[in-house]
Amino acid sequence: MNQNKLPMFKFTVVGYVNVGKTSFIQQYSESKFQDQKDLTIGLQLITKIVVVDKTKVKLQIWDTVSSSLIIQAGQEKYGDLLKLNYREAAAVFVLYDVTQKISFEKLHEKIKELEEHAPENIIKILVGNKSDEPDEKRQVSQQEAKKFSTDYGFDHYFETSAKSGENVEQVFVEAVRSVIVRMYMNQSFKSSIITIDNNIGDSRFGSGTPINNPPQIQERIRLKSIPQQQYAIPQQQQEKNYKGCC
Ligand SMILES: Nc1nc2c(ncn2[C@@H]2O[C@H](COP(=O)(O)OP(=O)(O)OP(=O)(O)O)[C@@H](O)[C@H]2O)c(=O)[nH]1
Ligand SMILES: [Mg+2]
């Protein structure tokens, strides 16, 4: 690969309301936890450059709309959001809250969503968040989650705490590793990954080229930008939420 190019992996984080999606991303990107009182409105994303097993990649991590907004946005717009959220995603983190059974039961809806909207070869990671909570609050056992992950063909299953940071870094490392392996074993998956210029590490939306194009015939393509006014929260709010991100 051209040394001036970085592969860019899009990761998306989904799950029932309040499971800790935003906190999980924030713990990974900023190593901090704060009590999130606001619902996530629309799609937000952050970028981060990481090195895993000596491979440097740029991650674009998408945080998703709260399910309560489905009602406000209407089914049609929500369908658009879903498509946008999964389009060209290399991996998906499907979160539930180990202290909220309903968030685990609702995973069936996420499975359906993945079947309908996610790329066929997407890496799927099941994440039981809030593992720091005391045992008496636990409503989902590791055994049932493990069985669910096997039954539905997840590539990995972890329990994490966005609060203490337990396992958060490891989940992302495993995701990057799995994407790299799949990329080199599967042509169609490989061609869905784009590369970006090494020197535009700070941009939120990079421009890119399919990873398997030889450099001399690379034609630069732009990622389609998100229709901000329709789906995303105001830029000011994004910057407030993710100040200091890569
Ligand atoms: N104890 C504990 N609390 C957590 C953890 N992760 C998130 N929380 C809390 O759970 C609540 C919801 O966290 P968010 O990160 O906003 O959850 P979300 O899934 O992004 O929520 P929506 O965007 O509204 O769907 C907040 O009060 C967080 O402080 C965790 O690992 N442990
Ligand atoms: Mg959120």
Automatic annotation (TrEMBL):
The keyword Nucleotide-binding applies. One of its GO terms (molecular function) is GTPase activity. InterPro entries: Small_GTP-bd (IPR005225), Small_GTPase (IPR001806). Keywords: Nucleotide-binding. It comes from the Eukaryota. Signal peptide: none annotated. PROSITE patterns: RAB, RAS, RHO. PANTHER family: PTHR47978. This is Uncharacterized protein.
